[in-house]
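Handout, page 2. Input:
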Amino acid sequence: MKIALVVPESNLKLNDACAPLNLAYLASYVRKYCSNANVDVKIFDGVAHKNIKEKVVSWMPDLIGLTATTPQAPFTYTLADFLKKECNCFIVIGGVHASALPQEASQHCDCVVVGEGEKAFVEIIKKLQNNEPVQKIIEGQYVENLDDIPSPAFDLIDLRSYIEHGPPFPGLESPIMSMMTSRGCPFRCPFCHNSFRNFPPRWFSAQRVVDEILFFIKEYGVKSIFFNDDEFIVNKKRLKEIAVLFEKYGINKQIVWGCQARVNSIDEETLILAKTMGCVVISPGFESAVPRLLEFLKC
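Output:
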């Protein structure tokens, strides 16, 4: 079975986008858990490379998986409609926008995956191979231990393009790599997509995070990391474990890094620790300066 995982072409620029690690994780998971199913997986990235429509069509996949954030959704729907007509294959749409509006997304595909995609996508593959029906909308079951997901299939994406055009955060110098080292958030702000998720926050282990950073340093000469986690520093235990490993491998002397954090997750002890680890920027969310609005927003 030939499986195409596709990021649609859009008006996103490389320095405004992150490498499609979501699809790279999906590809590595499929490779691991469908290793006996004779699958061939490719990633077609419309942000890093243009004219992907022709490339996908010429490959003639049996299954296509598309992803979309809200700004990308119109491009995803247009591409899905086109590929359905040209390739006449089974099309799945996932990602945060489809998870929020599955009925909308379902008008442009055969199946929508709501939530995390790894387990659901493997199940879809197995059902298609066995000629079994697939539901129109599937609630993806979350992966309890994130370390069970292999490292992203970096060989399937143009990682260097993203690293060399990394997002311009203050204090970070190129080459920059963006990373996601957790999923979910312990808070439930009602305006956030995390408030609708039916699974707990989980974190990759400290060793797993450090191993990938060492890979980026060795293979791509990365000098800066930005952690795109919804809340990188709230797990104080893991942060301290990462700090020990940073010291052990000398990472705090090789890179600088930044992250996002909730304001009340930041305290003096955490700031001191982060600084010793090479942190140069923390981007907090300022929803409002008005207590009444903060109470209304349940922040």
